[in-house]
Q: What sequence folds into this?
């Protein structure tokens, strides 16, 4: 799956270089933000970011194993 927005963004946003979220902290002590990226990292087999022609391109790969 590759996500693309048909909008030029003047700044790059690479979620693959974001720091890991400390999930051991109580929710009241955690800073806001980062859980979406955390979930994607845990659920996907690979994540690739590239910046091309002024666009941020994020490719997510997940292997799907057929059930027996």
A:
């Amino acid at each position: 799956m590759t996500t693309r927005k048909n909008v030029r963004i003047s700044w790059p946003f690479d979620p693959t270089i974001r720091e890991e979220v400390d999930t051991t902290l109580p929710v009241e002590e955690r800073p806001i933000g980062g859980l979406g990226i955390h979930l994607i990292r845990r659920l996907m087999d690979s994540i690739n970011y590239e910046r091309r022609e002024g666009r941020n391109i994020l490719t997510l790969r997940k292997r799907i194993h057929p059930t027996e």
About this structure: The chain has one helix and three strands. The first helix runs from residue 35 to 43. The two ends are 24 Å apart (CA to CA).
